[in-house]
Amino acid sequence: MTTRTGPVVLAILDGIGLGPDGVADDAVAAARTPTLDALFALSPPLRLAAHGTAVGLPSNSDMGNSEVGHNTMGAGRVIQQGASLIADALASGALFRGETWRWLVEGAREDGACLHLLGLLSDGGVHSHIDHVLALLDAAARDGVRRVRLHVLLDGRDVAGRSALGYLATLQAALDRLAAHGVDAAVASGGGRMVLTMDRYEADWGMVARGWATHVLAQGPHASSATAAVEAAYALNPTADDQWIPPFVVVDAQGQPLGPIRDGDSVLCFNFRGDRALQISRAFEDDALTAFDRGVRPRVRYAGAMIYDGDLGIPRRALVPPPQIDDTVGRRLAEADLRTFAVAETQKFGHVTYFFNGNRSGYVAPALERYVEIPSDRRPFNEAPWMKAAEVTDAAIAALNEGTFDHLRLNYANGDMVGHTGDWEATVLAVEAVDLCLGRLRAAVHAAGGILLVTADHGNADGMWQRDGQGRPIRGEDGAPLPRTSHTLAPVPWVIDDPSGRWRTRADLQDAGIASVGGTILCLLGLPVPPGWAPPLVRPVSAPAP
Hints:
By secondary structure, the chain is of the alpha/beta class. It is 33% helix and 15% strand. It has helices at 27-30, 34-42, 66-75, 82-92, 94-97, 99-108, 130-142, 164-179, 205-216, 226-236, 278-285, 329-335, 346-355, 389-402, 414-419, 424-447, 516-524, and strands at residues 8-13, 46-48, 115-121, 147-154, 184-192, 222-223, 248-250, 266-269, 301-304, 340-345, 369-374, 407-412, 451-455, 492-497, 503-505, 538-540. The protein has a seven-stranded mixed β-sheet with strand order 2-14-13-1-12-10-11, with helices on both faces. It has a seven-stranded mixed β-sheet with strand order 6-7-5-4-3-8-9, with helices on both faces. Helix 7 (130-142) links the parallel strand 3 (115-121) and strand 4.
């Protein structure tokens, strides 16, 4: 093992994958990226798997996301994730035998009470899955619940931009079947996921306030049905996709809301991913919350599909216990008395801290760590695609110049957040902004005698068009390809830049995934890689090739 002299720096290029050669909708390939080009010229990058079973999701048709990506890198091994845990618990029936489900059902069976299901309605598999919702509805009816209301957040981000009507049709068919068996079940409210309810990292509590008013208080624009609300939104704004659908409250023939949340009701947030379910959970449970005026808060039985923050215990009850990630990179560094610096802008701050640390809030070892959050802009990301990449880089360079940190990690959010807008030109600019900042970071790492590691958590900007099952672009009425706003199944790059020449990438690990990032960090810091962790991606130059 060679002796390390400088820090090990991990740069995570969020949403920047390696798409197929020659496709016209790859904003990463289209961007001017002299820094990445120079890094790739050092040695061809490994293409790491960042989706499906490589990050603990049920199948390789499941796109990766930032949460499971950072979980996996920080854990150094594949951890079964929320979607898999929920799917297994549903398939085995363990979920419905669990205390939390029985507690919710018990409350909903009281006279005049209702079971409310709140969450993202799609099959994107990132925050939720419609199959889970359908299974919950069937189980509620079997268990004697006679009144159910759904509060649906519309996706258009992890799935096709305008796909809400299809999901609503599938849901309505299930509700009709329940009605035939005497269950009063209906959609009560909804809206786009980027308009209400699903804020994260407290970037915009106004979103949660709008969700509370819509779902709980039944205050907002009226609609005869969720489908009618979506159709009206499409007609009003022909270019906006589902994530921007305005809030709506479904009313009956007399104009009365179908499903305000009242005292004695049971409420289940069926999202399994934590970041965008945490704040609405706090709104239901936190007596001291002052982020917005909740009015008279109804006394309800509230639960989440998962625990969204294990350290803070939010929510208090969940259908399925969270994945246990006790042994992480952060813990190993702290035990070795090594110092860590982590920085990202608000949109991804929790990823280089909470998720990277195994779903743990706060510091692993406060005396050895420093976390810096750069506040994100509150504006559409395609209006300022450079986002806060420069400020994140400034903070990392300042930390490097201190000369006291052994490991630094940072996240550049641009490729993912701007890629989600579907704006081609803005996404190209976003990638170019990241590359420019990566060049500054690289120079600072060299000056500090360190090693720079470059990878990503999943793809996004590498595929900007919707495609059919044969990979052909799906075109709109004008013949232009429809923009894609979701993640991709693309592998992500892995590059090590070690100016000393002591380390190189292991060329034999062509099937590696991003789980190997964790062990690589430990290896480069001179620490042993624990049994059961994925193999490091590097080897000393003096060592024989495997």
